[in-house]
Amino acid sequence: MRKIRRGDEVEVIAGRNKGQRGKVRINIIDNDKVVVEGVNIVVKHIKRGRARQAGRVEVEAPMPIGKVMLICPNCAARTRVGVREDKDGKNARFCKACDQLIPRPSVD
């Protein structure tokens, strides 16, 4: 079971963006990376051609999933995530700090 999902609020715990928070936009499971809104902005040079805008464009780059921690919606602190069965017998995530179940994020 994935402990960080698309739509979760996370905080960066290592690197040049340490301390920044944002929502997970894309979860790249194969490479264990995530793309977080407004974090890890890089400049990409795009040629004129099929692209609408040529030149230097700022984009959000993927970052390793180990550099982010989930923000618990119940206690509003960054936390480690555990997995246990809920009352329906399905696996559910829970906050190891406040011991509350973490609801599934609503993805827009």
Could you walk me through the main structural features you see in this protein, from its secondary elements to its overall organization?
This protein is mostly beta strands. It has one domain: SH3 type barrels, CATH 2.30.30. It contains no helices and 10 strands. The chain has strands at 9-12, 21-28, 33-36, 41-46, 55-60, 63-64, 68-71, 78-79, 81-85, 91-95. The strands form 3 sheets. The chain has a 6-stranded antiparallel beta sheet, with no helix packed on it. The model has no long low-confidence stretch (mean pLDDT 91).
The spatial strand order of the largest sheet comes to: 6-3-2-1-7-8
| Main pleated-sheet profile | 6 strands, antiparallel
The total tally of domains equals 1
- Helix fraction, binned, reads under 10%
Sum up the overall morphology in one term: elongated
- Spans where pLDDT lies below 50 across 5 or more residues: none
Return the string of H and E elements: EEEEEEEEEE
Helix-and-strand structural type: mainly beta
CATH architecture: Roll
Q: Just give the CATH class.
A: Mainly Beta
Rounded mean pLDDT is 91
What name does CATH use for the topology?
A: SH3 type barrels
Helix count equals 0
| Cα-atom radius of gyration | 16 Å
Termini separation comes to 21 Å
Question: Hey, roughly how much beta strand do the residues contain?
Answer: 35-45%
